[in-house]
Amino acid sequence: MTRALRTMAYPRSCWTSTFWFSWVLALVMASGGQQQTVFDASFASLIDAGANGSIDWRVSVSKDWDVLGPFPIHAREQHFLSPAFPLNLSEPLDHTAQWPSSYADNGTVGWTTARARDDGTLDVSFPEIRWSSLRATEGWAALQSHSVLHTTITIYPPPSQDGQSANPPKLLVDLLQGSFFTVLPPKNHESTEGVVPTWYAGNIYAMDRAPPQVVPLPRDPSATEPTAYDLFVSGDYEIRLFGDPLFNSRRDGIPVLSLTLSASLLTSSKAEVILLPSHDVTCDFADGWAFGDALGVGVRSLSGWWTVGNVSLTTITEPSPIELQLLNATRIAPSQTRIVPIRISQRAAYYASSIELDLHLTSSTTLTTLHVILPVTQLPQWTPSNSPSEGIMASYFFATSMPTAFRVIPPELPNDGDPHPAVLALHGAGVDIITMPFWIQALPRQERSWVIAPTGRTAWGLDWHGPSTQDAWSTVDALYAIVASRESWHLYMLAENTRVLVLGHSNGGQGAWYIASRYPDRVAAAIPAAGYIKSQSYVPLIHSRSAHYIDPPLRAILESSLTPDDNDLFMSNLVDTPILAIHGGDDENVPVWHTREAVSVLKTWDPNANATYVEDQGQTHWYPAVFDNDHVKAFMRSLLEQGAVGAVSQSKSFTLTVSVPSDSGAMHGWRILSLQTPGRLARLTVRVEDDLVSVRTTNVKSFSIHRLTNGIQLTVDDRPLHINETINDPVVLQFSIHDKMWTVENSIVTPNIQNTGRLSNILNSVAPLLIVIPDNSTDRMLSVAGRIAHNLDIYHKLDAEIIFADEALRRLQTGSLGRGNIVAFGDVDNSFTRHILVDSRTPFQIHGTNLFIKGRQLGQPSAAALFLHPHPSVDSALVMIVFAGRDSGLEKGLRLCPIRTGVTVPDWLLIGTSTDAVGAAGIDGAGVWGVNWDWNEAMSWL
Ligand SMILES: *[C@@H]1O[C@H](CO)[C@@H](O)[C@H](O)[C@H]1NC(C)=O
Ligand SMILES: *[C@@H]1O[C@H](CO)[C@@H](O)[C@H](O)[C@H]1NC(C)=O
Ligand SMILES: *[C@@H]1O[C@H](CO)[C@@H](O)[C@H](O)[C@H]1NC(C)=O
Ligand SMILES: *[C@@H]1O[C@H](CO)[C@@H](O)[C@H](O)[C@H]1NC(C)=O
Ligand SMILES: *[C@@H]1O[C@H](CO)[C@@H](O)[C@H](O)[C@H]1NC(C)=O
């Protein structure tokens, strides 16, 4: 692949996925077609009969679309509003009606039309809107907009059929860059009154490794004549997805929403379980030895429940140099995709170019075997002069059992004594480091430090927060374990829990600010390039629809769920971290003021902070020299020459800022463990003068300190605190406040670290999530479980197991529920939900069949409640309950499940009926839990 292709392609690839797509295809062609493409061959073979139009069912999507919009919206607000806003889809459509929209001349918009291209791509734009005039006062916020799009989808029966024996097909739908879609029963066939649309999430980031959604038809199609269905799409223009229209190929300032919809059919005569090679995970072999212990095989059930019960090697003569072990029996729900975890171990070197194995599966009625060929890359042992051009692909089990790959560049030279810090490199949004080697190739190989490029789960992940941060740190630990596993690699050992130099570009630059300021003791230095401060600064929320209706204190409580992401608020934690911040002076994608402002905030905390800002004049968002230049190299060299655990310079006075304690590490050994009022910031200011350490706290309930030297005098909030002399070498000293009196806890138990504050903490799981649904689940309920599992797979490659409530209760009783977080759907019909609510461990209670909080009953039948609840058997794990009895409530609850960043969902929410039209203003109650899951008056709205 040529450098020209790379440099040409990257500028938009980090944001606009459409551009990135064509780049992937170019890459596939350039490498002789050997790369994994975005779609799976196995799917192609299942669906081609329909496309050939021969003997089977066929589907066609009309190229003619109706478009209603644009309506102002702020980023991610579509998760609160109805995706069909402003329509009510149970009423007939009126194609002549007008709706108010402040974007349009005269203040109203009506239906228009658009036509898709042959490849299914639909470009929607509104050239009659005076965008430049809106933009002059409102900036990028004025380009955020929502539209409803409608077309028809037609199913044709097989031509020569007796009609009776033809099984009705299911749809397979890929929607790239749309928020949600739904398929409704045939027009004019029956009244759609009372029909609750099933909204499927589109693949809004056009993410790689995204299987299509399996969509059961809402009514069986006719076996004798074509049947038309309505297809509606929620189309939402976001700067982060489509970029600034002054810098696209047309440069006319008109935002173009560009979606791609493709549909095919799945007929039930086809295989019921298939391999999904896009989901396979392997590692490279270095000098004949696997660089990791995890392999993964992607499997999708098209219908039925399947269990992978065993795995066996094939075509290897005994005794085999490698051994495979199925880590866990893997149960796959209908339409679910999972990655089967397989541990690889070796007795001897292995040099073949693939590993062949059989997966043995059972369903309730059948046994089947799937034969898998996993290609592996054999690399020579790295040397000072020779290192693989795409780095080494390593693998490990994330969160106990999720096979995960990452790339590393080995150091040139073995250790010369103690190990040196590693380099942790965070990619930009839309960059898939497995299929796009350019990111690892942009990073210079280091003399004695490893360079580690994690996936962050996926190309977007959670913007390097939550599970993406967890993945970043876990890859560092995994590399330590891999290098330690083989004696001949010990010359290159990392320190255990090594400190790192964290760098990143774009979303990864933002991630570098994030990780450095939340884990200051593990970060030796940071090089954030072209990063943004936080989402609300990137594109302001001023065109919020809900803001015109919402009680401002409620808005404040909802927006407290963004606080843990707000990098500016945590700059106090960086005063002792060397920083080299970089931004191109003409960045068209992340405005240059972000880095200037971040550095300014830091320098306000401490004018002597070792932070250097380099503005590369005239450069845009990406330029190949961003890290590849003398000042970056000099900074890295001076920093990486230190030991991995060396002394850190410490200011005489510093302030530790924390929002959610479980999402933050220590600063100079000080750690905040819990807050007096969760939802508000907590700060600890430490001043050291000779033998005197004085600590001032704000909103802190407990904190700890490692290594407090004997003989020092400590004051906390101006009161001297006596430390028991018999504790000679304390590992952790824990301080707690009761009745405004600080005390030292002498008993050294593992501190309980507060992990609530927002719903998205449910994603921070140490094992696959369990999705628990009622025993007598309806098709809708099964679909809800399948859709959240699908979203977890596409957006985060987080594994989930779907189980029924009786199974969950059985596991609870036998102590085998596991340590993973749990999501429970349904109302009192879910016996697991009922069981865990009995103890009233949160202010939510069940009386009869109704849910109450502080005496308030969950409202109308279409309402839903979402809340975090303690795990019944594991202290540090969480349950998220999505409590809803009716379909409409379930659909709303599902859309607010915290899959994407920037959706404002604190610990608990009561969703009312009016959210469809007024978004977050339709919330009936919301709040953050207090300490120990108590009612938190200051941070609640009911
Ligand atoms: C706005 O209203 C004026 C006066 O009724 C009319 O002449 C004009 O065509 C309208 N513009 C649009 C874009 O509808
Ligand atoms: C899966 O395997 C891991 C590692 O052997 C084990 O810790 C875990 O308990 C297993 N989980 C289940 C659900 O069997
Ligand atoms: C800032 O940090 C860099 C990297 O460690 C180091 O080379 C430089 O000397 C530091 N500057 C100051 C003023 O401490
Ligand atoms: C000091 O710690 C020891 C051991 O935990 C305990 O027995 C003793 O009572 C403590 N003394 C004070 C003054 O707290
Ligand atoms: C499930 O349905 C069956 C049959 O309708 C019924 O006997 C059983 O009690 C139901 N179970 C639960 C937990 O509702």
Overview features:
942 residues, alpha+beta, Immunoglobulin-like, Rossmann fold, 5 domains, 8-stranded mixed sheet, binds 2-acetamido-2-deoxy-beta-D-glucopyranose, Plant_Biomass_Hydrol_Est, Peptidase S9 prolyl oligopeptidase catalytic domain-containing protein
Question: Strand count, sense and closure of the main sheet?
Answer: 8 strands, mixed
User: Which spans of ≥5 residues are poorly predicted at pLDDT below 50?
Assistant: 1-54
Q: How many structural units, i.e. domains?
A: 5
Cofactors and ligands:
2-acetamido-2-deoxy-beta-D-glucopyranose
Structural class: alpha+beta
Oligomer: single chain
Percent helix range: 10-25%
Number of strands: 52
Mean pLDDT: 90
Calculate the terminal CA-CA distance, rounded to whole Å: 58 Å
Q: What fraction strand? A: 25-35%
**Radius of gyration from CA coordinates:** 28 Å
Give the count of helical stretches. Answer: 17
The largest beta-sheet arranges its strands as: 25-26-28-27-29-30-31-32
Quick one: overall form?
A: globular
Tell me what the structure shows.
With 942 residues, the protein is of the alpha+beta class. The chain has five domains: 4-31 and 42-266; 270-381, Immunoglobulins (Immunoglobulin-like, Sandwich), CATH 2.60.40.10; 383-530 and 566-644, 3-Layer(aba) Sandwich (Rossmann fold), CATH 3.40.50.1820; 653-675 and 679-747, no CATH class; 759-941, Chitobiase, domain 2 (2-Layer Sandwich). The chain has 17 helices and 52 strands. Helix 1 packs antiparallel against helix 2, helix 13 (779-796) packs parallel to helix 16 (887-895) and helix 14 (805-813) crosses helix 15 (831-837). 51% of the residues are buried. Residues 1-54 have low confidence and may be disordered.
